[in-house]
Amino acid sequence: MNVTVAFIGMGVILLLLDFLAFSKKKMAASISLVWFAFAIGLILLAVLPVGQPWRNHSTSFLYIPNILLFGFSVIGLFLTTMAISVLQTRNRELAMQVSLLNQENEHILQRLEVLEKGNKS
Predict the structure, then answer these.
(1) Of 8, 18, 21, 48, which one is least surrounded by beta carbons within 10 A?
(2) Which DSSP string do the residues of 37-89 spell out, in sequence order?
(3) Whole-prediction pTM value?
(4) 8 A C-beta contact, residue 18 and residue 29
(5) Are 35 and 18 in contact (CB under 8 A)?
(6) How far is Cα 82 from Cα 20, in angstroms, rounded to an integer?
(7) What is the pLDDT along the chain (121 residues), one digit of tens a residue?
């Protein structure tokens, strides 16, 4: 397994997951942009001829466990940030609903005071 292909594959998979999560509104735009930049960075790391020792084909089998661990860790972090983004969106929606309920409650209390003053007269 060529290490360059593994990094390109991880970057492309991350780009696809990022696009799907953002299009289904499961990830905020700011967080999605960070993951997009990370995926592009992975692809550039694999494509640019920097000359790291892991590019040597004779020793690339030594890096396979590390690449797999890195890949699973990145996917786990992606899923975690996606869940956090969904929870942030729900929290924002709940805060808006509570604000509307408080406003409605205030309006009802004001009408109740007016009605009680009208009944006492």
Answers:
(1) 48
(2) HHHHHHHHHHHS----GGG-TTSGGGGHHHHHHHHHHHHHHHHHHHHHHHHHH
(3) 0.73
(4) no
(5) yes
(6) 11
(7) 577 788 889 999 999 999 999 999 889 888 999 999 999 998 888 887 666 666 666 666 777 788 888 889 999 999 999 999 999 999 999 999 999 999 999 999 999 999 888 887 6
Which DSSP symbol is given to 25? T
Other Cβ atoms closer than 10 A to 36:
15
- The structure tokens 């808006």 sit at 96
Handedness of CA 38, 14, 28, 19 (dihedral sign): positive
Query: How far is Cα 44 from Cα 105, in angstroms, rounded to an integer?
Result: 56
* Angle made by CA atoms 120, 116, 100, in degrees to the nearest 5: 170
As a whole number of angstroms, the distance between CA 121 and CA 98 comes to 35
Tokens of 62: 């030594």
Is the Cβ–Cβ distance between 46 and 4 less than 8 Å? yes
